[in-house]
Every structure is written in C-alpha cells, then in structure tokens.
C-alpha cells in the first residue's frame, strides 16, 4: 500500500460519513426485531401497578417525566446527563392476566438499537416491580 | 502493512481502518440504562410518605409548593399521580463573572486576541421537575411523594455548560419541609 492508495482509502473512509440529509421517518431497524428486543411480558402486576413501577424505574434511572397517559399506558421521559436520552414506555393489557411493556430509547439524534441496553432497562423494571409487588414504597 | 511500518504511516492506516470498520454508527454509552449502586439511597432521599386527608388535598398542597418555588406546571396525569413542572432561572454568578472579566482584561493586555471568556459565563438554567404522588403501598391511608430534579445550565451564548441530575439530599429535604407546611395550611384552611 503506497501513499496514493492510502489517500484513496482515507477519502473513502471519510467520505462514508458525508451524506445528503435522508428523510428518516421509518427508522433503520426491522419492525419485528425492534419489537422483540424492546418488549417484555409480565403476569405479576396489573396495568396500573405496572405503570407505577415504570414511572418509578424511570425516576430511578434519573429521568424526569415529560408526559404520561394512564388510559393509553404511555409514558415519555427525558434524562439530561452528559447526553440527552429520551424514552417512551408503553404498557398494554394483553388478555386478563398479562401485561406487555415496550420501551424505546433515543440518545441525541440516534435510536438505541442494542439489546443489552434494553435488557438493563428491564432488569431495573423487574426490581421496581418486585418492590411494588411487595408493597414497598 | 509491513511495508508501511518503515514509512511511519502505519498508525494512520490503523486509525483509518478502525474508522471504516466502525463506520459512522453512534455508540450507545455503556450502561446507559443500568441502575447505579446508589439507587436505593437516592430513592430514599427523593421520597417521603406522609398522611393527608385525601389525594386531592396532597396534590393541591404539592402544586402550591411548586408555585411557591416559582415553577410552572407543564402537565398533570392524575391517575398516575404525575406532576411535571419546570422553570428557567438566572444562573449568573458574580464571582465567576469577575474572574472571567479579569481573564479577558489580561488577555486584552497581552494582545493575543479572541478574548471572549465572558461569553462562557453562566447565564440561565432550565430546571425540570417530576413529582409523583400516590397512595402508599406500605402504609394504607398515607401518600408517597417522590421528587426528581434535573437541570441544564447555559452560557451567555446559549451553549450548554452543564447537564445534570440534581442529587443533593438537602435540596429534596427542603422541598419536603415546604410540602409538609403546605399540607398543614391546606388542611387547616378547608
């Protein structure tokens, strides 16, 4: 590899970052994949108690709540700490005994797509749900 | 690659290769949603359980305290007990401004140019607050109140200087002291 090859390589590397502004409406991931990593099913608590636990989890993680709707089961929250992180969590009743919780997060301009981050969120939610179930405020 | 070693271009090639492989994908900060070890302590500092005659009484008292603290209420979702409030306040610090002014004077005296330290002075801060007021699970008839606070501090040019969660227990203690007083007034006025 000589200097010319390296220069071409450098241009390719840097050029890869420059794009015209795409209209990002649909997001980058596949619908099914995103739903899988962002969703958990619970059969421990009902919808209101699950929502209570979700709000507590978001507070535990340092978020403040922007908007919440008990009927639709939707909570949006933001954390300003080093970077801006925004989350929307939806709680939906599935049948009589199951509740589905879906969380999606963005950091600044980017969607959070890695499964580990969502796994951490659900670990935190499990702890909050355990406290709610055992009636610990 | 071994031929590059002698030319001193190897480190450049390695950096470029890493750039190509990682692309422009943003990296999610590790542990962005992992609970910190201090979570239970922070939760305790942000939470109080108190007796109140009704949910409406304690919510009214909470809103009154937020108004006392010069916050505006942004949203309320009563079934979840969530009250969201915010305010923009002055973050000017006379001491900081004096220091930056002296730095600018020294800079001007040395004729080095670009003497705009004063523009980096704190100007205002946006404070976001969430209060959750719900019937206590552990103590029937009482209510649990949890407050969380964050702030963004801007400089004179509207650049973000600080983004932080407010964790100082004394600040939360002061809010709860005010809330107990507000609740007392609320109960005794009606």
Question: Would you write up a description of this structure?
Answer:
The complex is a heterodimer of chains A (137) and B (190). Chain A starts with a helix and ends with a helix. In chain A, strands 1, 2, 3, 4, 5 and 6 form a six-stranded antiparallel β-sheet that branches. Chain A is α+β, with helices and mostly antiparallel strands. In chain A, helix 3 crosses helix 4 (115-133). Chain A has helices spanning 3-15, 31-38, 47-60, 115-133, and strands at residues 39-42, 64-69, 74-81, 83-94, 98-107, 110-111. Chain A contains four helices and six strands; from the N terminus they run ααβαβββββα. Chain B is built from six helices and six strands, in the order H-H-H-E-H-E-E-H-E-E-E-H. Chain B has helices at 2-5, 10-22, 39-46, 55-68, 94-109, 169-189; strands at 47-51, 72-77, 82-90, 122-135, 142-155, 160-165. Chain B is 40% helix and 28% strand. The model of chain B has no long low-confidence stretch (mean pLDDT 85). Chain B is of the alpha+beta class and 190 residues long. At the A-B interface, helix 1, helix 3, strand 2, strand 3 and strand 4 of A face helix 2, helix 3, strand 2, strand 4 and strand 5 of B.
